[in-house]
Amino acid sequence: MRPTIVIVGAGFGGLRAARALRKAPVDVVLLDRHNYHLFQPLLYQVATAGLEPEQIAKPVRAILRRQPNFEFRMVEVTGVDFATRQVATDRGPVPYDFLILALGGETNYFGLESIVRHGFGLKGVVDAVAIRNHVLRCFEQAMLEPDAERRRALLTFVVVGGGPTGVEMAGALSELIRLVLVKDYPRLNIKDVRVLLLEASDRLLAAMPDRLSEAAAETLWRKKHVEVRFGAAVLDFDGARVTLKGGEVIPARTLIWAAGAKAVSLTATLGLTTARQGRVTVTPELQAPGHPEVYVIGDAAYLEHDGTPLPMMAPVAIQMADTAVANIARRLRDEAPLAFRYKDPGSLATIGRNAAVAYLGGVAFKGFAAWVVWLIVHIIQLIGFRNKLFVLMNWAWDYFFYERAARLITKE
Amino acid sequence: MRPTIVIVGAGFGGLRAARALRKAPVDVVLLDRHNYHLFQPLLYQVATAGLEPEQIAKPVRAILRRQPNFEFRMVEVTGVDFATRQVATDRGPVPYDFLILALGGETNYFGLESIVRHGFGLKGVVDAVAIRNHVLRCFEQAMLEPDAERRRALLTFVVVGGGPTGVEMAGALSELIRLVLVKDYPRLNIKDVRVLLLEASDRLLAAMPDRLSEAAAETLWRKKHVEVRFGAAVLDFDGARVTLKGGEVIPARTLIWAAGAKAVSLTATLGLTTARQGRVTVTPELQAPGHPEVYVIGDAAYLEHDGTPLPMMAPVAIQMADTAVANIARRLRDEAPLAFRYKDPGSLATIGRNAAVAYLGGVAFKGFAAWVVWLIVHIIQLIGFRNKLFVLMNWAWDYFFYERAARLITKE
Question: Where are the domains of chain B?
Fold first, then answer.
């Protein structure tokens, strides 16, 4: 009997693992509650009407169509029975010989219930389309609002969190408004519009060298008209007013929360030991302690590297997938598993047209050069030639014509 | 004071009227509850994962951005006070000197409540995306369904109504399944899949000559594997079983209702005299009787032409818009309004790749030639060069690679 390897999650890690097993003498079963793989790094562009969801997502079945040892099941995973080696799902149990848990992350609201209720996260297609609908609706409502104060609140957009997602979201939102929407709303007074980026610490992009963090803040502030505020911790948002620690209140109808991530809530229910952000503490070989046939990778796994926890980012998930697959292969040959070694590919964040910061191979650079690198890297990583082509065409069009194609309010 | 012309509805008629007034010495206010104009003739392609909503819809503000006398308001119209000349909306009244009611149509379920509840209409973006999600979800569920009978019901798709929408929907759905999804689902037994097109009368495409109707049925049946049934009137659908007049029951989890249209329900509440399908009886000059400053056009207007009611189709709406605008201009010059004359541009329906039927200028043709004409006509009519380009690229890709890009299940 060929061993069955069940992979939970079709994100960067799970998909990579499934592909890496294509020539292995095993059966691969991939489970996900969505039927598509999502290229999350470009999700903020869906939220700002630049891209359509279909352009950054691709059905899992289409991606792995030609892999004969592969099977996909769209199910909701509800637990794992490690004793009988079965994944529990809403459509019955799925038995495994090896299990790769690539469960992924979700927005971490740090217990702020009011923000869960009134704010927007940015983790999935539904989130992104909800933000797009809401932002455009705010503009439509502002046009009809006679009261100046309420109009300004409709046109105040608060992004919380100075990591890459928050920086990219704030920059893209400001460009959507200042390059595109101003043309749609000739009666709009641009002075009524505010985009704020709130960061609790004293710098943006903590993974980057200081001078790039400063460059990012400077560019956001001077070129993109984003009000960057440091030491600004959000305590509450009731849908109309953002309350900061210290008591300051910002009237705003939109709050986008990009201030934290954690492992998906399912992770905590599996009975495995979890560490910070609800991530499962794994052995250096990426196994769940006590369950050598279970691998945990990506956002769901907690592992320290040179004394600091590995970040919840795609490169970590992808590299971990390779190690997990290699270790399963070694195990099938009765060899001892190898410890995971992370090779940091560096980091990139775009702020808007012609503006990005990059820290690659220890080299820091910014501006147009970083922006071109960002663009190339993202096009290369997008899955499927069709998606690459359509995204590139969209970007080219938007770049030259100052447009955004997806400015539709599609929710009833 | 320049007169204010309020147009209700941003469909084919309303948009055409707004554009036709661009050089007139008037202020134009266009009201719609959506912020976009939708190219409805291609909506079935969104429902069958071929196109993305953004490619057949364009924001009204973007379309009419350069028209200085134009203003758009996204509001829900709730009524009209003809005495004080005000349109009532959820955001307060909008006064007018002339009113053009281009309210459009909606699905006519003929009082069949069970179909409203369990079936799908195909009038808006939300409908189309709902069908796409549902059809793809049926395939995912069928893969997990051990019971053969229930699996077959999941894979039985019933389209009701043999007009252009039903014919195009059934053909496109069958092609989606037989050309694309079979590759995604290698374990699928294609014999389990049924696409039915139910028509209550004894022919498809009633507006076409007999031999084209026959050719369409023949092509659907022989080439596209659609089971075309005549004399099949649907009485009930409970989400699992379709019941026909006569008692026959078809187990199916999907019913798409393309069997009728009527004026939107708002039309009936305006206090104007309505005729068949809830449409407002208008004078030959397209005015509401007793209200010479109110024009009713498109699906909302009932007018007979050579003894038969004008159909609820885009060409009628567009031509009526031109007449309404011309009559307003004449009125401003104190000239008598002119009667509407409809020029029938003919009709077209596509059945799938390389297959369509066309009846243009009294000439009937079919097959590849008709399909090419259909393609050209639709690309030309799509609004905006970007949409034309992206739709054409999508079609080319799908044609050569037997693909559909938008196979995502995006509803949680």
Answer: 4-33+75-107+261-332, 115-259
Let me know if the fold of A4-33+75-107+261-332 is the same as that of A113-259: yes
Q: Do A397 and B386 touch (CB under 8 A)?
A: yes
Number of Cβ atoms within 10 Å of the Cβ of A287 = 18
Q: Please tell me the predicted confidence (pLDDT) of residue A1.
A: 81
Q: Is B336 exposed, middle or buried (0-12, 13-18, 19+ CB in 10 A)?
A: exposed
Average pLDDT over residues B8-17: 98
> What is the spatial distance between Cα B394 and Cα A406, in angstroms, rounded to a whole number?
16
- Interchain CB distance below 8 Å, B409 and A74: yes
- The CATH number for B4-33+75-107+261-332, chosen from 3.30.420.10, 3.50.50.60, 3.40.50.2000, 3.40.50.980, is 3.50.50.60
Q: Is it the case that residue A87 has pLDDT exceeding 90?
A: yes
pLDDT for the residue numbered A412? 54
> Are B35 and A409 in contact (CB < 8 Å)?
yes
**Strand B254-257 versus strand B156-160 pairing type:** parallel
Residue B241 has pLDDT above 70, yes or no: yes
Which tens digits make up the pLDDT trace of B152-170? Answer: 999 999 999 999 999 999 9
**Residues in chain B within 8 Å Cβ distance of A53:** 52, 408, 410
Q: Which residues from chain A sit within 8 angstroms of residue B406, using beta carbons?
A: 54
The whole model's pTM is what?
A: 0.95
Question: b/e per residue, A114-150, with b = 16+ CB within 10 A?
Answer: bbeebbbbbbbbebbbbbbbbbbbbbbbbbebeeeee
- Tell me which CATH code domain B115-259 carries: 3.50.50.100
Question: pLDDT-derived band of residue B412, with 50, 70 and 90 as boundaries?
Answer: low
The rounded percent of chain B whose pLDDT value lies above 70 is 100
**Mean per-residue pLDDT, A187-196:** 96
Chain B residues whose C-beta is within 8 A of a chain A C-beta are 34-36, 52-55, 57, 59, 61-62, 65, 71, 73-75, 91-92, 125-126, 129, 136-137, 140, 143-144, 183-185, 187, 386, 389-390, 393, 397, 403, 405-412
Q: State which CATH number among 3.50.50.100, 3.40.190.10, 2.60.290.11, 2.60.40.60 fits the domain covering A113-259.
A: 3.50.50.100
Q: By CA distance, what is A63's nearest residue in B?
A: B184
A168 tagged catalytic: yes
Amino acid at residue number A220 = L
Closest Cα in chain A, distance from residue B406 (Å)? 6
